[in-house]
């Protein structure tokens, strides 16, 4: 069992280039945090002490770039520094300013906070618009997390759902533009939930979408739902995070199922993924679901996985990894998210 199998099974602000200096690979990694505190929900939190260890490791081993720079480089296939990493936070909590910002400022790291404009300044744990302005002066990027952090797939069985959802996203972007002077058109889906229609629609309107499934990013990625590695809660372990930070985007050519939203009645999908295999040790590819390795079948340059029983209501994902032939110790990573509503079309937190 290779190292990634063991790990997965067990569970200047504007332009800052740090220690890593080897040649550009065209791949990057996006980290996702929520709370930096030991007084907040453990599942979405990391202590300031552990967060400082993460940032010190990045300073010594990676090149931290702003999220807009990373996306622009990938979209235009322009050069990136080796081992490029972008840092993001979801939800605009005050503890980001209180506990994370001093650590990030120490290293001169740029970072992005995805906020819900309609709750900024209206909830005690949220940043105020004055704090947003102060952080922005110090190089922090603020981006769209929709207006109020609702489940975007709620009501998706209705005819007017997509128009209403896009209206909400555009409202949030307009407020961001008014308050910050910028419209980056970077959208993080609340709870990481999206469907094919939504991801395609936001791209048509010039947005880049971000999920909460895992994986590296490259010019080959789906810019309607880019993966990010969660780095808090059970994923805060630096030893496992090191492997993820060195991951590469799986060169996916096609997937049989492009729709991540399932129905309660039909929630036992079989997914086939076709990849470009020239740099992949395909005989060592392994896929995992809920921490356990699942069976995969190969046919030429495609692999297939399925489930023994229907998926649970809520959010699920399968992670598949395979070693690179040329880059020793680095692994290609593919993550497939699935979203299942309750029988009466509700979406649990």
TrEMBL record:
Upper lineage: Bacteria, Pseudomonadati, Pseudomonadota, Gammaproteobacteria, Alteromonadales
Pfam families per the UniProt record, alphabetical: Polysacc_deac_1
Gene3D superfamilies, sorted: Glycoside hydrolase/deacetylase
Major localization listed first in the record, in broad terms: secreted
Domain NodB homology: start-end pairs: 83-295
Signal peptide boundaries: 1-22
Subcellular location(s) of the protein: Secreted
This protein's name: Polysaccharide deacetylase family protein
PANTHER family: POLY-BETA-1,6-N-ACETYL-D-GLUCOSAMINE N-DEACETYLASE, PTHR34216
SUPFAM superfamilies tied to this protein: Glycoside hydrolase/deacetylase
Keywords: Signal
